[in-house]
């Protein structure tokens, strides 16, 4: 069964980017064994990407070739007229959770990567629409920035599936969401 | 050399308590092997406690016997007239970081436990006055509450010393602060 997986890196104080949406602090992290943190492997298990509009613009702003050409990417936005110019990408303004159910019901052994940002993540958590969280915590207290989990009302309980760390000091924790 | 250690439990989204300063979500965490997460061991290595005024009142509010009788406890407050009625406890309104230096220079193989809360922790981080962080991350996204790390300006880099998890799903990460 297809799963919705939030796969993301964060600072120890829960920021996914600094106030200017930059991730230099993450890229500059010393990585003695040049580990890709299982990224290539993860990406090969994904056929659908969901991200918020700001996250889309941030990734486009990196100026590199669109890294997710092999996936169908949904950019969540209330504005269907949003300009999209990357391959295999569409703006999505409809009922997202209905769409996710539809995608899940098409059998596939590949999964849906929820890439953030915070507002999209909150919405998915509130709708109990995330199945797993694969979190990479970088050894830095950033102080301020874009929060991984913006505030919301109802606590979400998790079950820890895996946890280990890398020589860079990155801590990996893999959770399953316990649904009501 | 005496170290200042921030030893604390947090939700995955970085809250040390809910909005009403309660920690039921932490106490109710299933703990199949009745693990104390190394707490007794840690406490036996401590002879000084530092906590903010609110944290003091929250712990007093638990209504149990004061759990830190064997330690000298400093309650940080701008109000020296604060009523203190627990053993071995004093209100501290002076230059806290001078006092910490003074305490550190009295040789002892025991350490200083910085117990929080958020405002006191931020002040210690900003003054580069924390040596180590021992963080216990509970498998829950709380949604809202009292933040472990309130916003501040200057990123603090860390070096990961240890990381493991418990059957309860609690993830333990032990960091050393990299000072400028």
Sum this structure up briefly:
The structure is a homodimer of 180-residue chains. Chain A has helices spanning 24-27, 39-44, 53-61, 96-105, 118-126, and strands spanning 4-11, 15-17, 46-52, 72-76, 89-92, 111-114, 132-138, 140-141, 146-147, 156-165, 171-177.
Mean residue pLDDT of chain A: 94
H/E element sequence of chain A: EEHHEHEEHEHEEEEE
Multimeric state of these chains? homodimer
Kindly report the name of the CATH homologous superfamily of chain A: Dihydrofolate Reductase, subunit A
Largest interface: A-B, 35 and 35 residues
Q: pLDDT below 50 for ≥5 consecutive residues: which ranges of chain A?
A: none
Shape estimate of chain A? globular
Strand order of the largest sheet of chain A: 5-4-3-6-1-7-11-10
Strand content of chain A: 25-35%
Q: What can be said about the biggest beta sheet of chain A?
A: 8 strands, mixed
Distance between the termini of chain A: 19 Å
Q: If you compute it from the alpha carbons, what radius of gyration of chain A comes out, rounded to the nearest whole angstrom?
A: 16 Å
User: How many β-strands of chain A, per DSSP?
Assistant: 11
Count of spatially separate domains of chain A? 1
CATH secondary-structure class of chain A: Alpha Beta
Second CATH tier, the architecture of chain A: 3-Layer(aba) Sandwich
> So how many helices of chain A?
5
Structural class of chain A: alpha/beta
CATH topology category name of chain A? Dihydrofolate Reductase, subunit A
Helical content of chain A stands at 10-25%
